[in-house]
Amino acid sequence: MLIESYGTEFAADAGAAAPAVPAETPLGATAAEMLEMVRCYASDGMVFYRQSDPVNAVASFAYGYGWLDAGVFLGYLQGRSAGRLPEISEEIPSARIEHLTEKTHRYQRMLSSALAGVVTLPDAETRMWSAAQYLNAIAVSALTQGGGSVAAGDLVAALVSFSYGYGWLDCGVRAGLFGIVGDRDLFTI
After folding, report:
1. Quick one: which of 111, 107, 124 has its CA closest to 56?
2. What are the DUF357 domain coordinates in residue numbering (predicted)?
3. CA-CA distance, 134 to 132, in Å (whole number)?
4. Which of 125, 31, 119 is nearest to 73 (CA)?
5. Model pLDDT for residues 112-138, shown as the tens digit of each residue
6. To 5 degrees, how large is the angle CA 101–CA 139–CA 86?
7. Nearest-CA neighbor of 162 among 63, 84, 65?
8. I want to staple 157 with a disulfide (CB 3.0 to 4.6 A). Which of 38, 67, 149, 171 is the partner?
9. pLDDT band for position 167 (50/70/90)?
10. Residue pair 188/89 in contact by the 8 Å Cβ criterion
11. Separation between Cα atoms, residue 114 and residue 124, nearest integer Å
12. pLDDT at 102
């Protein structure tokens, strides 16, 4: 898939997404915040792409999709979930490889630190605890998958994985499923 196609698909999904809970409730306010994150990252990603910055574009699209998919999973948002990570076939221009390398490794460190910097808040006997465990598992899986992509030399796939998993974890913090015990600056709270 080309980065522009990924962005176009994400922009359409972000535009079609909607809150799934009443706006006047605390859940509705959280859903609105989630939707704002999704749409901002769709918009930002397209701006980056138009400015010939495919690295930040693909990171924005993947992070935003993480927020959208987590929001749909949790029931805050309704819309189409990506359900998969794309296989980006587009080559990053050689002038952007250093940026891709730096950003990929930085996001790997950030996601690792973010995972270590949260604790599950809901009681273990509740469904929300199970939901938090699922979000955490998605983020851990993304970190592992991204690490495998780094080892294989596919930094674009790694960046997509790290960004996507980070979106799931950050959305879980916003939803109140995780408490921050580490660096608060790693989250959009």
Report:
1. 107
2. 17-76, 106-178
3. 5
4. 31
5. 999 999 999 999 999 999 999 999 999
6. 60
7. 63
8. 149
9. very high
10. no
11. 21
12. 98
